[in-house]
Design a protein that fits this description.
Blueprint lengths: L1 E3 L2 E2 L2 E2 L14 E5 L4 H11 L6 E5 L5 E5 L7 E5 L6 H17 L4 E6 L17 H12 L3 E5 L14 E4 L2 H11 L6 E5 L5 H11 L2 E6 L43 E3 L6 E9 L3 H12 L4 E9 L5 H6 L5 E5 L5 H6 L3 E5 L1 H12 L16
Helix pairs in contact: 1-9, 2-3
């Protein structure tokens, strides 16, 4: 089910036919292979056609890009998102941007609804911050502006050397709650872990609902894995170090049993997050909420990656509905699980493109949107 939203929250965006459409003489909309359906929706709302750009792979899996029309002095908008084929998505975007730059395009704007590798935005022991590497590659390839949606961490914008517009999908999800969940006034917004409590609080305050937090869940990150850093220090051989001052042993963390802080008995539980990929933690949280008396359980997220056997796990879980936007294609997963619903956010992306091209303010799109969303 694809819900075509022509408005979000209290903000009413103009219809495609009433839009001050960009001049087709100097704007070109091109798309990679990641999400052609979303590209077609955006092009239809803007009243333009996608440019003549062919992106394909040779037999040796090298990515080839051929631009059929002249783009000299034109504004190029490349629509490419992250999917399961993430590395090919990235290379397509980089090669398309570089091809546009070397073809003397006036500007190259990357429309990336879901930024790949956005979860790897923090230092993890001997790892690296992959998101910063990706941001630098995008800027070097020729992107002069980036439009994305619901970054995993807002600080990711600082990795880019070009302007970044981080749009929010929360107004669409709030509208879905108000219009498509019967008796939503009897709901409680649930934070799946203490880290997502700010987002849940933001939703609860605007819907004027209560909040509950699930505590004791195992973290998804690999920061707790044992590696060489936990090895004991070697004994000093120099007599100058015989002061008897040793390195204190850190107290081991003990996870408490999973618990729900807040009352969900006889209520509709709505879990909110920025993305849903590995659903095991969501299913575990839903089982606890069901035990505590929640009679309906919804999961709301912007990016529905739904990797591996996520559709089967959702189908067999107490979760009643998983509501995600179409920033990531998931038609195959919807055929495997009838609980997955889609909210269309193409009007927000098309309005952002129109405003940037016409040099209008973007603040209208962030009206009543908080940093915690």
């Amino acid at each position: 089910m694809l819900l075509n939203n022509n408005s979000f929250g209290s903000i009413r965006l103009p219809q495609a036919k009433n839009m001050d459409a960009p001049k087709t003489s100097d704007v070109v909309l091109v798309a990679g292979n990641s999400h052609p359906e979303l590209a077609n929706l955006i092009a239809k709302r803007l009243g333009v056609k996608t440019g003549g750009c062919a992106v394909y792979h040779k037999q040796n899996r090298e990515t080839m890009v051929q631009i059929g029309d002249s783009i000299r002095g034109k504004d190029i908008y490349i629509i490419q998102t992250g999917t399961k084929d993430v590395n090919n998505n990235i290379m397509e975007l980089l090669i398309m941007a570089y091809a546009c730059q070397t073809s003397s395009a006036k500007s190259v704007v990357g429309v990336i609804p879901y930024l790949p590798y956005s979860k790897q935005c923090k230092m993890r022991k001997r790892g690296c911050i992959v998101t910063k590497l990706l941001a630098q590659m995008m800027c070097k390839s020729g992107l002069t502006h980036v439009i994305t949606m619901d970054l995993h961490q807002k600080e990711i914008q600082g990795f880019f050397d070009c302007p970044v517009d981080n749009l929010r999908a929360s107004p669409f999800l709030l509208q879905y709650i108000q219009e498509c969940i019967p008796d939503y006034r009897n709901s409680v917004i649930v934070a799946r872990n203490p880290g997502s409590a700010k987002k849940a609080t933001s939703y609860a305050e605007r819907l004027r609902l209560g909040i509950a937090v699930i505590h004791g869940e195992q973290k998804e990150s690999e920061s707790d894995e044992i590696d060489g850093r936990y090895s004991p220090p070697t004994l000093p051989r120099s007599r100058t170090m015989d002061a008897g001052v040793g390195v204190p042993i850190h107290i081991a963390k003990e996870k408490p049993p999973i618990n729900v802080v807040g009352d969900v008995g006889g209520r509709i539980a709505i879990m909110v997050d920025d993305m849903i990929d590995d659903v095991q933690s969501f299913v575990a949280a839903a089982e606890v909420l069901k035990e505590r008396g929640a009679y309906k359980i919804y999961v709301m997220a912007t990016h529905g990656l739904l990797s591996s056997d996520a559709p089967r796990l959702i189908e067999d879980s107490p979760i009643d509905e998983v509501v995600v936007t179409n920033t990531v294609p998931h038609e195959l997963q919807k055929m495997q699980c009838h609980k997955i619903k889609t909210v269309d956010i193409s009007i927000l992306l098309s309005e952002a493109i129109r405003r940037i091209h016409n040099k209008e303010s973007m603040s209208y799109l962030f009206k009543n949107v908080t940093l915690e969303d």
